[in-house]
Amino acid sequence: MPEETSEEKEIEEAETAEAESEAEKPEAIGKEEEAAEELEGAEEEAKVEEEIEGAETVEEAEALEEEEVEAAEEEMELEEEERRPRREEEEEIEIVEERIYTIPLRRAWLMPSRRRAPKAMRIIRSFVQRHMKVGRLEEGEEELEEEEKPRVIISNELNEYVWRRGAEKPPRKVRVRAVKDKEGYVTVYPA
After folding, report:
1. Are 52 and 13 in contact (CB under 8 A)?
2. Pairing mode, if any, of strands 186-190 and 173-181?
């Protein structure tokens, strides 16, 4: 049996290191897929290195290296696009109006202690309806049915901000960003 080249040894070492690192991971989902992708990546790197070594001129080797770098950059860009948060997708909706408000929540503190955070959420909703003119009829508009009326959507981030200290101690005031889209929906985010 012929001796293994240094490249084959490196590939085998990489494979064993990957297998050991995956054995340490507690996640069982997707292990096989990750291993297959990593093996493919190691094989591709080995092929590119062989092509670079087999290139007759320095210029050909540099061109092959540049192609490898460009391919890696494209893969990273695709991965970043997949990881982008949902909030950016929501903002792609055509924005008609965007305003920033500081909403006082002092009236929520007049409620019994366990009802303060729910009251704060109702105060935020009514404030935004009043100031963003949600649900009001403008000239030339007919009254909409109950299901089709524009409404206020409070984002999870704002909800978590109000509730972070529990129902008994909501913030005294909150700064929000209200975004109205072309369909009449108003989404409220923390500013």
Report:
1. no
2. antiparallel
* pTM > 0.90: no
Residue 68 CA to residue 157 CA, distance in Å, equals 40
Q: Are 114 and 178 in contact (CB under 8 A)?
A: no
Give the H or E element holding residue 51.
helix 31-54
Dihedral sign from CA coordinates of 28, 33, 35, 41: negative
Strand partners, 99: 178
Rounded CA-CA distance 170/121 in Å is 10
**Mean pLDDT computed over every residue of the chain:** 78
Name the band, by pLDDT with cuts 50, 70 and 90, for residue 145: low
Among residues 104, 105, 161, 95, which one has the least CA distance to residue 132?
A: 95
Q: How far apart are the first and last CA of the chain?
A: 68
Q: Which of 75, 173, 92 is nearest to 127 (CA)?
A: 173
Q: Rounded to whole angstroms, how far apart are CA atoms 31 and 63?
A: 34
49 burial via Cβ count (<10 Å: 0-12, 13-18, 19+): middle
Q: How far is the C-alpha of 22 from the C-alpha of 166, rounded, in Å?
A: 40
pLDDT digits (tens, 9 = 90+) for 9-35: 777 777 776 666 655 555 545 566 666
